[in-house]
Amino acid sequence: MDFSLTDEQEMFRKTVVSFVEKECPREVARQYDENKQFPYDFYEKIARQGWFGLPFPEKYGGNNCGIMELILTTEAFAKYVYDIAGGYVTTMFCGLNILKHGTEEQKDYYVPRIVRGEIRLAISISEPAAGSDAAAISISAVPDGDDFIINGEKMFCSGAEAKNTIITMATRTDKHAQPRQKGISVFLVENDTPGLTMRRIETLGRRTMGTFSLNLDNVRISKNKMLGKLNEGWEVILGNLDKERIVASSAYVGQAQSVVNDALAYAKERVQFGKPIGKFQAISHMLADMQTKVEAARLMVYRAAWMLDQGLPASKEVSMAKLFSSETLMEVATQGMQIMGGYGYCMEYDMQRYFRDAKITTVSAGTSQMQRLIIARHMGL
Ligand SMILES: Cc1cc2nc3c(=O)[nH]c(=O)nc-3n(C[C@H](O)[C@H](O)[C@H](O)COP(=O)(O)OP(=O)(O)OC[C@H]3O[C@@H](n4cnc5c(N)ncnc54)[C@H](O)[C@@H]3O)c2cc1C
Hints:
Structural class: alpha+beta
CATH superfamily of the largest domain: Butyryl-CoA Dehydrogenase, subunit A, domain 3
Strand order of the largest sheet: 1-4-5-8
Oligomer: single chain
Bound molecules: flavin-adenine dinucleotide
Distance between the termini: 30 Å
Order of helices and strands: HHHHHHEEEEEEEEHHEEHHHHH
């Protein structure tokens, strides 16, 4: 078995890591969170690097790279603030859905704009009554000539309010369909479409992207903006879910590594009872366990990404990696807070931000309970 990156991948990884150190250092990440500021400037810079084009074919201006290159990118992006990676993951994942399910016209229009960083994509599946049970979507899209009229409410759409954002929105087009998954259609809705209003939801963490509730009041959308076929939106939503989950998981690993790095540096510096606290076995063993778990999470993510790149079925491995990396991030962030004592609780240190941002990773992109359900099904349960 060979777990090493190729020379090109290692060179690429180093390039992204040093880019993040220069363009999104600790102080900048802190400001994004404190000011609840969308990272437009950072995204403009990565567009100039060509990194919005990584997974897309050359004919659209992309680089035709695999999932492995994507996860190396997001692992590095998440170093200081998770949302830098989060916004990127959503645009990549929705863009891949357009590539897979879009008409030729849709692909020609949207994909080059994504690659150039001119548009970004958000995903809106959740509703007040549709969380883990995503098939409970009820927001209605009713045909009206060449258009559809959408009415209803959506919850938790991350990054929905950012400039030039297109919301990939799952709607109900057949309310009698059985099973319920058969009556869902997806539309590409520009976030300045008349009749669409948004409200920012105040959250514990993930404040850079922000998450929004949406109200749609007679929103008129052309049928040309339907992604995939009528009533077959469930396949569109699920189409690249494994890729989204694994790329998000690599960002959890990137953030978890920062937690360990910060806690380790603190344990070497903080002196109590005449010696650095890292010299106390209780602290040094906690750090050893933290690094071991992060390394295990990284290996699980890399293996699942490798399987996807080989075209192998990897749904179980992706769910295992998502489950383990998100729970590891939450666990090490809690331990990191403990190692820093009272200082971890202070807003001037980054540990509290890692801790706040970590909390949602076991919920978003499918809760830990849902991942266990998927894994158990693969085990024949
Ligand atoms: C910051 C943030 C950003 C988000 N971004 C987006 C986004 O961009 N787009 C989007 O569509 N959604 C987004 N979400 C929504 C997110 O995907 C949901 O919160 C998630 O799917 C869980 O749904 P819920 O919160 O309604 O919880 P529920 O589904 O109500 O679950 C509550 C609890 O019950 C458990 N549970 C539910 N069903 C079962 C079961 N069958 N077996 C065992 N346990 C079960 C869950 O695991 C959980 O612990 C975001 C949420 C947040 C907070």
